[in-house]
UniProtKB/TrEMBL annotation:
Keywords: Dioxygenase, Iron, Metal-binding, Oxidoreductase, Repeat. This is procollagen-proline 3-dioxygenase. GO terms for biological process: collagen metabolic process. It comes from Cephalotus follicularis. InterPro entries: Oxoglu/Fe-dep_dioxygenase_dom, P3H, Pro_4_hyd_alph, Pro_4_hyd_alph_FE2OG_OXY.
Length: 398
């Protein structure tokens, strides 16, 4: 009771708390790494998933944002130095997803969640239709998701809320829950995972952080729950497809028993009758390049002059046939894939404007970007282990 009267605040909207580039960078990570979520039509990227798929370096861009949010939540609710981040995830909702009235601690196993933070990474009407957020009572009642805006509220029953059904597009948030209980500290769990996964794989240098796909079920999107891969689609192939690319397997003849393994093997990207010569280590690596290009596409002129354009190779009829065959396997329902992932208004021109010289520059820039994050991770990890806390470590010198 006393706690209530001292801190009666229950919610706040922080406008433009994240920069547009922060939103875009997290969008890149989500679209490169997400898996099908815990509910139909929902996709998610958790930090532990990034570690498990050999992409722990992608945790780095979350750190300054997590720190700023923690500070803000503690300040707003008057609990400085008392909170722990319980869970961090990128979550996207696609057509058909919605959520009725509820509070965020409404299950016995969720009682440790004391405060909720939703950062909107894209915008209502521009990137998706539907998906308005409502509080059952009090002010504000309705929140219109806009890229960069953040909603913070107490996770208890004083903040009953709902989200309208998504009509179209992909609605993306960075979601965090905060707890007063140190036993629920996400950092401690992540440090344990990082210590296991990273220390053993990093001996040869950070350039080895190439993605490693999880089980193929985790990427299979289907309308019916009991998915046997006979309907629906692979989300990685679908994202590559809606960006105007195809995948080509250089593994020679396709043997049907090994099809599910195929996406774990080296493959190439194609567009129309042109094949890009670069070999990606697996589907996630190819997807990363496509999403990176999409993220940075506007600034490529600077890079273009610095790289030798790699000439595309013309595909033969047989090779084009193989591409169509792969599509028929991994995009069983192509119409559904397009309906789920096609954006609402933006980037309509992107599919038409792919230029292999620019794309090649993007692949090189992605390597530099990943290498920089990888180095930062490897330098930070000993500090995190010592302090049992994940934070932005300041490095001096070159
Ligand atoms: O994405 C949102 O705006 C809210 C979603 C929500 O209420 C939840 O995941 O508990
Ligand atoms: Fe909720």
């Amino acid at each position: 009771m006393e706690e209530e009267s001292k801190h009666p605040r229950r919610r706040s909207i922080l406008q433009k708390f994240l920069s547009l580039n922060e939103c875009k960078e997290l969008e890149f990570i989500h679209k490169s790494c997400s898996t099908v979520g815990y509910r139909p039509n929902v996709l998610s990227t958790t930090l532990s998933h990034l570690i498990a798929t050999n992409s722990p370096h992608f945790i780095i861009p979350f750190l300054p944002i997590r720190e700023r949010l923690k500070e803000k939540v503690e300040e707003f609710f008057g609990c400085e130095y008392e909170l722990f981040i319980e869970f961090t995830a990128l979550i996207s909702w696609t057509r058909g997803a919605s959520c009725g009235w509820h509070s965020d601690d409404n299950r016995p196993y969720l009682k440790q969640r004391h405060f909720t933070v939703f950062c909107y990474l894209n915008s209502y009407d521009m990137d998706f239709k539907g998906g308005l957020f409502h509080f059952q009572d009090g002010e504000p009642t309705t929140v219109v998701p806009l890229a960069g805006d953040v909603v913070i509220y107490t996770a208890d029953s004083s903040n009953i809320h709902s989200v309208d059904e998504i009509i179209n597009g992909e609605r993306l948030t960075l979601t965090l829950w905060f707890s007063r209980g140190s036993a629920h500290d996400e950092d401690a769990k992540l440090i344990t995972l990082l210590s296991k996964h990273v220390l053993c794989s990093s001996c040869d240098g950070p350039e080895l952080f190439l993605p490693l796909p999880a089980s193929s079920n985790m990427y299979w999107f289907s309308q019916n729950q009991a998915s046997d891969h006979q309907s629906g689609f692979d989300i990685c192939c679908a994202r590559i497809h809606v960006n105007g690319f195809d995948i080509y397997s250089s593994q020679g003849k396709i043997c049907s028993t090994e099809l599910t393994e195929l996406l774990l093997e080296p493959l190439q990207l194609a567009k129309g009758d042109e094949l890009f010569e670069h070999k990606f280590v697996n589907i996630l690596h190819a997807l990363q390049a496509v999403q990176f290009y999409r993220w940075r596409a506007s600034g490529w002129d600077i890079f273009k002059a610095q790289v030798e354009p790699r000439r595309p190779i013309r595909l033969s009829q047989t090779e084009q046939g193989e591409i169509s065959y792969l599509k028929s396997i991994f995009l069983k329902d192509q119409e559904l894939a397009e309906a789920v992932f096609n954006t609402v208004k933006r980037d309509e021109g992107l599919q038409l404007s792919i230029d292999w010289a620019n794309f090649s520059a993007a692949v090189t820039a992605l390597e530099d970007y990943s290498c920089k994050l990888g180095k930062e991770l490897l330098n930070s990890l000993p500090h995190w282990r010592t302090h049992q806390s994940i934070y932005c470590v300041q490095f001096h010198g070159p």
